[in-house]
Structure formats: structure tokens, C-alpha cells
């Protein structure tokens, strides 16, 4: 296989040890669960489809879903569960193009499957739009793009920070940090754009409900924000390698003769 093939990631498709199939399946299941549980919080069974959305409930549902999913599959696929994350990391050289394309296909298919299951499980009287993302009252597409840009930006900026290979101490808290960032974004943006943060999440809802109004906003915004955040972090804020960090200098515990004598019990207490 030539150099071009290795750069594109074609080498990852050969050999059973690559784990690419497991990773693709993990991304599929991750997005299925995200749309099932996250968008499920947008449905109000008790009050029907005309009930006002509970923003805190929706924010917590999506944040906790991402926390649980990344905790479960992070070691398999990296726990992207979002085309904006995948494209952002690919732009920074952290993911090869072929893997990125396969991830995005799996993410969109999983989101569609999750929204399909949600539709099957929900009574027609309460289904409404099944969590389809849409612009809020008087919010223009350009304003929606700006909101989604910064939703993608903050998410991928945090992802890069907690997954920095030179910061192994942050690995354990990465799923929680990412989940809380998703919660943060929803608390801000549900009334603006429905707070997608995730093109696949919007795609899954749109394809099941067949509602495509301003759908480009939910791809262009998070993806552009994700690329900007990944490039900014990698080229401006990456932690230095451990071997480049100068070890701290410590003052000797016993730095003079008087202190040595005191510690040995041979001299007077000089304090």
C-alpha cells in the first residue's frame, strides 16, 4: 500500500486486528442511544405534543446520555458520537479520512435508528416532532449558524483538552467533562436552535419526521466550529510532552550544618 493510502487510512481497513468494524459499530450504537434517550426527553407523554419543553430536563438528558455513551465506548472508537467531533479531529490529523467518513456514516445511521425506535415507542398524540431541531422565534438562519458554530466550538475544544495525549491525568474525567459541556450547550441554545451540537442527532430526527427546515445550519455550524476549535487547540494550546517539562528544583531538606546537627540530635534546637 502506497504512502497516499496510508495517509488516507486505507491501511486501517486491512487486517482483523485493526478494530475498525468494532469502532464503527460502537459509533452506530452510541448515536442510536443518544437519539433514543436524548430526543426522548423532548417528548412529553403526560401533557402531549403541545406542552412547552423542559429545557433543564432536555439538557440533562443529552448530557447524561453523552456521559454514559463515551464512558462505555470511548476505548473502542474514541467515543466521537458526533460528526463535528470526527471532522474536527480529522482536520487536526488525529483521525484519518477513511475512518472519519465511515464514522460519520455510522453516526447518521445510528441516529436515524434511534429516532425510528423513539417514534415506534411513542403514542401518536404525544409524538409531535420527536425532537426535531428548529430555529426559535425570530432567529434567522445566520444567527442559528452562529449559535451552532459556538456549540460545536466549545464541545470540540473541551474534547481536545481532556483527550490531549500529553495530559493523561484528565483521561478519567473526560466522559464527565464532555457530558457536562453538552448540558451547558443545551441550557443556552434550546430556545435558539434546539441545540443540536451534533449534525447526526439533527439528521436522525429530521429523516424520521421528514422535516428539513434550515437543516444546513445543523451541519455547517457545528462542523465549522469543531474544525476551528481543533486547529486552535492543537496548534496553540496543546500540552507539552512530558519529556519537555523541566522537573522542579527543590531546596535540600537539610541545607546547612546547623540543621543537620539538629536533625541528628547532636546540636541545640536552633529554632
From TrEMBL:
GO MF:
channel activity
Q: What keywords appear on the UniProt entry?
A: Cell membrane, Membrane, Transmembrane, Transmembrane helix, Transport
Where is the stretch described as Disordered? Answer: 248-271
The reply to whether Transport figures as a keyword in the UniProt entry is yes
Q: Which Pfam families match?
A: MIP (PF00230)
Membrane topology value: Multi-pass membrane protein
Q: Which residues cross the membrane?
A: 20-43, 55-76, 145-163, 175-196, 216-234
Which PANTHER family does the entry link to? AQUAPORIN TRANSPORTER (PTHR19139), MIP17260P (PTHR19139:SF199)
The entry sums up its family as follows: Belongs to the MIP/aquaporin (TC 1.A.8) family.
Looking up NCBIfam families in the UniProt record yields:
MIP
User: What is the designated name of this protein?
Assistant: Aquaporin AQPAe.a
| Annotated organism of origin | Papilio xuthus
Amino acid at each position: 500500500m502506497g504512502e497516499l493510502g496510508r495517509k488516507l487510512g486505507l491501511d486501517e481497513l486491512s487486517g482483523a486486528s485493526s478494530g475498525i468494524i468494532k469502532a464503527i459499530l460502537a459509533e452506530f450504537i452510541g448515536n442510536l442511544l443518544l437519539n433514543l434517550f436524548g430526543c426522548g426527553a423532548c417528548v412529553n407523554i403526560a401533557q402531549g405534543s403541545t406542552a412547552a419543553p423542559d429545557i433543564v430536563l432536555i439538557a440533562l438528558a443529552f448530557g447524561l446520555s453523552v456521559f454514559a455513551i463515551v464512558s462505555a465506548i470511548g476505548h473502542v472508537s474514541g467515543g466521537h458520537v458526533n460528526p463535528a467531533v470526527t471532522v474536527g479531529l480529522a482536520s487536526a490529523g488525529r483521525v484519518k479520512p477513511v475512518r472519519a467518513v465511515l464514522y460519520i456514516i455510522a453516526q447518521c445511521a445510528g441516529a436515524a435508528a434511534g429516532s425510528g425506535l423513539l417514534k415506534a415507542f411513542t403514542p401518536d398524540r404525544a409524538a409531535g416532532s420527536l425532537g426535531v431541531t428548529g430555529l426559535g422565534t425570530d432567529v434567522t438562519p445566520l444567527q442559528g449558524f452562529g449559535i451552532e458554530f459556538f456549540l460545536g466550538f466549545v464541545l470540540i475544544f473541551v474534547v481536545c483538552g481532556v483527550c490531549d495525549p500529553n495530559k493523561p491525568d484528565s483521561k478519567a474525567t473526560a466522559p464527565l467533562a464532555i457530558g457536562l459541556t453538552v448540558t451547558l450547550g443545551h441550557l443556552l441554545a434550546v430556545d435558539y436552535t434546539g441545540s443540536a451540537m451534533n449534525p447526526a442527532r439533527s439528521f436522525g430526527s429530521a429523516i424520521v419526521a421528514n422535516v428539513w427546515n434550515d437543516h444546513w445550519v445543523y451541519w455547517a455550524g457545528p462542523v465549522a466550529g469543531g474544525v476551528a476549535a481543533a486547529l486552535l487547540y492543537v496548534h496553540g494550546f496543546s500540552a507539552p510532552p512530558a519529556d519537555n517539562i523541566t522537573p522542579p528544583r527543590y531546596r535540600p531538606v537539610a541545607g546547612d550544618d546547623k540543621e543537620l546537627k539538629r536533625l541528628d540530635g547532636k546540636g541545640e534546637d536552633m529554632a
